[in-house]
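Entry 14: structure prediction run for Rha family phage regulatory protein. Input pasted below.
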Amino acid sequence: MKAIAPAVTPVLVELANGQPTTTSLDIAARFGKLHKDVLRRIKSLDCSPEFAQRNFAPCTRPGANNKPEPYFRLTRDGFTFLCMGFTGKEAAKWKEAYINAFNEMERALIGAAVNPGTVATSAEPIHLTYNDRPFRIVPEGAALWFVAVDVARALDMRDGHCLTRHLRSEHKAQRQVGHRRLGLIDRPGLELALHHASPARAEPLRLWLEAALEQFVSGAPAPRALPGGLSGEQQGALKALVAARIEALPELERGRAATRCWSALKSRFGCGYKEIAPERFTEAVSLVARIVLEGELLEPEAPKVVGRLDIDYPIEDWKARNPQQFRHDNPNSPDLVVGYGDLLSSDYSPCCDLLDKLHNAGYCVDGAFYELRSYQNLMLQMDMAIRLMVGNARQAIEGFEQDRRRLQKFVGVKGHKI
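Run finished. Output tokens:
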């Protein structure tokens, strides 16, 4: 199938029924409004029923407790009609971004119709199943991209936007997958999503995905799935977890430890691991991960934190690096006193260091960085203003003191004794 080259924009514009559209969810997020207010505004628009039917398509998605949550899919005309009343510099920026995105999508559609031979062909997605839900992987050359909405469902997130909004642009893209244009994330983006997710959801997905990708790269067939039992990928993930648990044990203990893991699964579920119901895969992974193995008690290791950044900023470290900042006005009080001048003279900022680590790890922290820089610049301006005011006040006082001490001579006036 021929696909349209993606438009790299900061807003969501995707094909629906052959025409570019966006959603009320994305509009609310970009313009900084509550989604319920955007829904209310759409329903109260003074347009004809025919126009509303053509340009505002009501949709639903699973919300809290799987209750349907309404939203609208808008065409270009619908977006224009809705957002023409949004004012302000920030609103103007997002209007321009949406217009550019719609224009880019329409140019791509026209180019595909006029010269279809020049349009890149998208790779056919690899269709997998995770916990009875679709999980699609889109290969592009040597890289693998993952459909964001499938990853979000696997991690029990609300939608793909919750997954991608914190990722930098190089870790996300939009592609034509089948008849739909979907958001994708690359492997580093997926790793960041797993770091953000609940460990109870992330670890089973990580293990299952490693087993699935190993079979995909090696070309080995997936283990046979029994009717009503775990899929081939889930079986591979469970075996990989057992192998990882026993690998660190002394060699003589490994056979007994593996038997203990498989026996625990059979005792819990009353069947062999291949016959476990797919929807109980997460429970099976959790059970194997919690089993206490005998070799581990003989040689306990320090707990390892996997997938976390080296973030540690105790107050003692800040004090040690900037001793000139802190003083105790009251020796009997533990409270520290820090002046803004002390902060300005500091050579080390834990906030800047933290943001640098997050940026280097792939997080987009530009907003937080510029907010911090703005505070620092405003403090510098305030410091200069106060210094100027103090200098002027000191000069005025010195002038007043000189005038007060200067001898005055009044011609023709004689002094009188009192």
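Notes: The beta strands are 14-16, 19-23, 56-62, 68-74, 126-130, 133-140, 143-147, 172-177, 180-186. Will compare against the previous run tomorrow.
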